[in-house]
Amino acid sequence: MRIIDLSLPIFSGMPVYPGDPEVKVEIAHTYESHTWELRSLAFGSHTGTHVDAVSHMHPGGKTLDELPLDRFFGVSYVVDPRAASFPSRAGLFFREPAGLEVLERVVAAEAPRAGGCLDEPLQRALLQAGIVTYTDLTQLELLPLNRPFMFYGFPLKIAGGDGSPVRAVAVLE
């Protein structure tokens, strides 16, 4: 078994989408002052590697705490956006740019999740179709094309959450 971390590290001053909150990770307690270490975290819900709930781009859409947990993990594939069809009922990830031209095939495949190199119109359309999306995944090039792997990308259980940073991992047999 091989585990591949698909996540970006979160750190103070890291790049964010224009207009999103600045990331601040600061030491609040130290071993010397409190006998433990504790960090204060301040960042937006779409910081680093993150998942988007439908509510992120669609008013009244499902929020993170309303989505079933099986949307955030399961058998997945890295696929070529030019493929005629995609594997059914599996997560679909793109390491090459994918736009609205793949929408019908992703929806027809009944994908529960999609991510990687998605443009904003595609992301918006996927969310409208009830497909959660993952942004800022790394190391997708380490995953084999068209071969199944287990994906895990659980969000924090934020009440009314529109998105959340995740620790995204792929597990290869």
Q: In terms of structural class, how would the helical and strand content be classed?
A: mainly beta
Shape: globular
Parts with pLDDT < 50 across at least 5 consecutive residues: none
The H-and-E topology, N to C, reads as: EEHEEEEHEHEEEE
Q: How large a portion of the residues is in β-strands, by DSSP E?
A: 25-35%
Quaternary state of the chains: single chain
Q: Tell me about the biggest sheet?
A: 9 strands, mixed
Overall strand count: 11
* Rg result: 17 Å
Which CATH class of the largest domain?
A: Alpha Beta
How many individual domains?
2
The CATH homologous superfamily name of the largest domain equals Putative cyclase
- State the helicity in percent bands: 10-25%
Instruction: Give the strand order, joined by hyphens, for the main sheet.
Output: 1-11-9-5-6-7-8-4-10
Could you tell me the mean pLDDT? Answer: 97
The third-level CATH topology of the largest domain is Glucose Oxidase, domain 1
CATH architecture of the largest domain: 3-Layer(bba) Sandwich
**How far is the first residue's CA from the last residue's CA?**
5 Å
What is the number of helical segments per DSSP (H or I, 4+ residues)? 3
